[in-house]
Design brief:
CATH class of the largest domain in chain A: Alpha Beta
Oligomer: heterodimer
Order of helices and strands of chain A: HHHEHHHEHEEEHEHEHHHHH
Strand content of chain A: 5-15%
Shape of chain A: globular
CATH topology of the largest domain in chain B: Rossmann fold
CATH architecture of the largest domain in chain A: 3-Layer(aba) Sandwich
Largest sheet of chain B: 7 strands, mixed
Shape of chain B: globular
Order of helices and strands of chain B: EHEHEHEHHEHEHEEEEHEEHEHEHH
CATH class of the largest domain in chain B: Alpha Beta
């Protein structure tokens, strides 16, 4: 059952972490707290029926996105699947535009056209937010290809879940990444369940899912405790270095855990027994207690004397206030109109170029 | 004017665009060292090297998805599907990623990619290799669809497709690759044809034959016979581009002749001609002196048997029969 395991190594001593300033460390904690509070607020708004469709929460997994994104340089890019709010906030997207997108408002990051699963910020090297399981894995490869083609020293961090590793597109991508020496890093966020199906019931593997990369001649590694931001940074840092210096891909598997259901409408994720659902309340409680990324990092920063209890309380307070403000912003923003439907379909039409003005592009009355 | 084959015309378009824009590259199966399964990319790898002309393993989902990702960073990939029929294994990447990433990102991202290859029946390769998915592609708002019938159009439209900032699905035809036609000499300047502009390939006042791709040649053949044997003169309108569509040209020819036969290698159910027929009844009902007629591929999977497959596709004889029925 448990996918996470305490490490015996103290990753705070790893160079990539030892060189962090106190302010940088507090910033990392603040980023995780912001994600937690944003999503907690989004969940409340979902229950108030302020949004439609799906809401896949990242709560419990924050150290993965924040730890990984904190290592990105100018030419490093990130792309993920549908559980994308954490990565979005980690790269620096604002709560307002994200909350407004959940509300389907015109002020949303995708103008209310994408929704929860489709957040984008290419100006921050963030390429979404993709709804089809595994569908983003060739796109991540393409970002890496583009970097190499342009002669830029960078990498593509492509996140996927433990369910996505069984999609064909991912395996095709691994083959191409290995064959063409592309600087892509596939980060499998293994939270133990592909929707309501446990890893054991969905995947054939030897020791772990990342190990499959060996068959493609790709180096792989694991983070056993994905709630330890320091461990995440240490392992991901090495993969980024490999991508930058050798233009070689890496597959990483990071053991993590989501506290909420696959999406918030998931009646079988927190039952008393495994006869009633796919996981138990006790299991969730075990992870909340022992592997909470925010609790874990808070302890570390307190022990290091980098942050005080007061600091952490203030961070939470600020994040709650920021979340509330984003809800107000989203509430007060207008919905897109039917006229907006046909914008953002064709670049040439949007820019009113000669090509966009030639021929009929849309087939309404 | 000089004449070259449809195949050479495409080859010239690639060669010129590779030289014009460093972001343009070709990728596909057997397109580089092997020179292309249908030799459309012949000589380009030798001339431009590994970076610009790339052999991919047989992974349509992988390499097309990769190209979509690369296009988001500003590259202009031209992907060959050895047969357009193989779109089925790359459909998620084409429909959801190439077709919808712009919309779902609220216009923050665009995808200047071309996906090209032959899309036709008639070569006895069986149902799996004989799809004509222009109708399938055209149902996705966000994709553009082009089906040239001649060498000239193939070159001019391909160059435009590569420069277009939206994903263009470019449908060629193995039965057209060897056909020669007049194409302007590169020495006379840059030659492009805009998407969304149909071409009247023959003029006549009695009936309009509207077609795209190789069906244009079938329509022209029928028009010759109708003229010679029946004294019936046909407008033959080549749509060239399906989406965007030159609606004005369609309505103009209908207004002129008042009788229409649509010639379409798609199957009849939800084929391109079904859309054109709907458009005509909606916008030109009063111009019609007879019901709109269609000649499509016969509605079954493409048969292998060579003599029967020939009859399954639109034929001049079936076009003539439909014309005579409404004249």
């Amino acid at each position: 059952m448990p996918v996470l395991a305490e490490s015996t190594t103290d990753f705070s001593k790893a160079e990539v972490n030892a060189t962090l300033t106190a302010e940088q460390k507090r910033h990392l904690l603040r980023d995780m707290i912001r994600i937690r509070e944003f999503e907690t607020g989004a969940f409340e708004q979902y229950q108030k029926k302020k949004m439609g469709g799906f809401l896949h929460l990242y709560i419990g997994q924050e150290a993965v996105a924040v730890g990984t994104v904190s290592l990105m340089g100018d030419h490093d890019h990130v792309i993920t699947a549908y559980r994308d709010h954490g990565h979005a906030l980690a790269v620096g997207m604002g709560m307002d535009e994200c909350m407004a997108e959940l509300f389907g408002k015109r002020t949303g990051c995708s103008k209310g056209k994408g929704g929860s699963m489709h957040f984008f910020a290419p100006d921050k090297n963030y390429w979404g937010g993709h709804g089809i399981v595994g569908g983003q894995t060739p796109l991540g490869l393409g970002l890496a290809f583009g970097l190499k083609y342009k002669g830029l020293k960078g990498c593509a961090l492509c996140f996927l879940g433990d369910g996505a590793v069984n999609q064909g597109a991912y395996h095709e991508s691994l083959n191409l990444a290995g064959l063409w020496d592309l600087p892509v890093i596939y980060v499998i966020e293994n939270n133990g369940y592909s929707m309501g199906t446990s890893q054991k019931r969905s995947s054939a593997y030897n020791t772990c899912l990342a190990e499959r990369a060996a068959g493609y001649g790709i180096i792989w590694d694991v983070v056993r405790n994905g709630s330890d931001l320091y461990e995440v940074r240490e392992v991901v840092g090495r993969a980024i270095e490999r991508a930058h210096t050798e233009s070689r891909p890496t597959v990483l598997e990071i053991a993590t855990y989501r506290y909420e259901g696959h999406s918030v409408a998931d009646a079988k994720h927190n039952k008393q027994s495994l006869q009633e659902g796919y996981r138990t309340k006790d299991e969730i409680e075990h992870y909340r207690k022992n592997f909470d990324p925010i609790g874990n990092f808070s302890h570390k920063l307190l022990a290091e004397g980098v942050a005080t209890e007061e600091d952490i309380k203030d961070m939470k307070k600020a994040a709650v206030a920021e979340t509330r403000a984003s809800v107000t912003f989203a509430d007060e923003s207008p919905y897109p109109t039917l006229d907006d439907l046909h914008a953002d379909v064709y670049h040439e039409v949007d820019h009113d170029t000669p090509a966009g003005r030639t021929g009929r592009h849309f087939f309404n009355d | 004017m000089r004449t070259i084959t449809y195949r050479q015309a495409l080859n010239e378009a690639f060669d010129e665009e590779i030289q014009r824009d460093p972001n343009v590259f070709l990728i596909g199966e057997e397109i580089a060292e092997y020179d292309g399964a249908y030799k459309v990319t012949q000589g380009l790898w030798k001339k431009h090297g590994d970076k610009r002309v790339i052999d991919s393993p047989i992974s349509e989902s992988g390499f097309i998805g990769m190209a979509v990702g690369a296009s988001m960073l500003g590259l202009r990939p031209v992907c060959e599907l050895m047969f357009w029929s193989f779109y089925t294994v790359a459909w998620d990447q084409i429909a959801n990623n190439a077709g919808m990433v712009r919309y779902m990102s609220g216009g923050l991202i665009n995808c200047p990619i071309v996906i090209r290859g032959p899309a036709n029946g008639g070569t006895n390769v069986g149902a799996t290799h004989s799809h004509t998915p222009e109708n399938v592609m055209a149902t996705i708002p966000g994709l553009k669809v082009v089906c040239p019938a001649t060498a000239r159009d193939a070159k001019g439209l391909m160059k435009t497709a590569i420069r277009d900032n939206d994903p263009v699905m470019f449908m060629e035809n193995t039965m057209l690759y060897g056909i020669e036609g007049e194409v302007p000499d590169p020495a006379d300047g840059d030659f492009t044809i805009p998407l969304g502009v149909a071409d009247l390939k023959r003029e006549g006042a009695d009936v309009s034959l509207i077609a795209h791709g190789r069906s244009v040649l079938v329509a022209l053949e029928a028009a010759e016979i109708l003229s010679a044997e029946h004294g019936i003169e046909c407008d033959v309108l080549d749509l060239r581009s399906i989406r965007p569509l030159d609606e004005d040209a369609i309505l103009d020819t209908v207004a002129k002749t008042n009788r229409v036969v649509l010639v379409d290698e798609n199957k009849p159910f939800c084929g391109i001609s079904a859309q054109i027929a709907a458009l005509i009844q909606e916008k030109a009902f009063d111009d019609l002196d007879a019901p709109v007629q269609r000649v499509c591929s016969l509605d079954a999977p493409a048969i292998y048997s060579p003599p029967v497959e020939k009859e399954q596709l639109p034929t001049a004889a079936r076009v003539i029969e439909k014309v005579l029925a409404i004249i």
